[in-house]
Design goal:
Blueprint: E1 2-6, E2 18-22, H1 25-30, E3 34-37, H2 41-50, E4 55-61, H3 63-66, H4 70-77, E5 81-82, E6 87-101, E7 107-113, E8 116-120, E9 126-130, E10 136-142, E11 151-152, H5 155-158, H6 161-171
Antiparallel strand pairs: 1-2, 1-7, 3-8, 4-10, 5-11, 6-7, 6-8, 6-9, 6-10
Length: about 170
C-alpha cells in the first residue's frame, strides 16, 4: 500500500497521479480508513469474523473478464460516491487505486496490490479505478446481504444520515 496526495493533474485516471507528497497510514486512520496487509485469505477470515462480515464475493475488473463494458465500468467506479455500509476490499491479484476525500475535501490516493485489505467507513466520499495494468481481482466482504449501491456525490448525499454521522464521528473528532 502506498498513500499520497492526488496531484489533480489531467491524465488518465489509471495513472499514478502521485504528487510526491506521501501520507502515513496513521493519517488514513484519522479519516476512518482501516488498512491491513494480509498475506493470505486465512487472515482475511480472521478479520471477517472479528468484524461480523457474513458474506463475500469476488470481482475481476479487467478487459478480458468484462469485455466491451470494461471502460464504462471503470469510469462508473471513478464517480465520486459514498455507501451506507462499510466498503471492504481485499486485493487477491493485480492492483488498483482507492481515492478518498480528506477533511479538507482534497483527494488522497491509496494504491493497493495483492495482499492489501482496506475498509472504508460508511459516508466517506471515495472512488476506485484500476491502475495502468487494467487488472484488479478483489474479494468483497459484506456484513449482511451483498450490496454495493453507490450514492453519487450531490446535495442529497451531503445530507445523507451516514454522511452526517461520518462528519460528526470522524471528521470533527480530529
Amino acid at each position: 500500500m502506498k498513500a499520497y496526495w492526488f496531484d489533480n493533474l489531467p491524465g488518465d485516471q489509471r495513472e499514478p497521479h502521485n504528487s510526491g507528497r506521501t501520507l502515513d497510514p496513521d493519517y488514513l486512520a484519522k479519516l476512518g480508513v482501516i488498512y491491513h496487509h494480509v498475506p493470505d485469505v486465512s487472515g482475511v477470515d480472521v478479520i471477517a469474523t472479528s468484524r461480523n462480515y457474513r458474506n463475500r464475493d469476488e470481482i475481476t475488473v479487467s478487459p478480458e473478464k468484462m469485455g466491451a463494458i470494461y471502460e464504462e465500468k471503470v469510469k462508473s467506479f471513478f464517480h465520486e460516491h459514498l455507501h451506507e455500509d462499510e466498503e471492504i476490499r481485499y486485493i487477491l491479484d493485480g492492483g488498483g487505486y482507492f481515492d478518498v476525500r480528506s477533511e479538507g475535501d482534497d483527494w488522497v490516493r491509496i494504491w493497493l496490490e495483492k495482499g492489501d485489505l482496506i475498509i472504508l467507513p460508511p459516508g466517506i466520499y471515495h472512488r476506485f479505478t484500476t491502475d495502468e495494468q487494467n487488472y484488479t481481482k478483489a474479494l468483497r466482504l459484506f456484513k449482511d446481504e451483498p450490496k454495493w449501491t453507490p450514492l453519487n456525490r450531490g446535495s442529497e448525499t451531503d445530507t445523507n444520515q451516514y454522511r452526517q454521522e461520518y462528519i460528526k464521528t470522524v471528521l470533527t473528532a480530529q
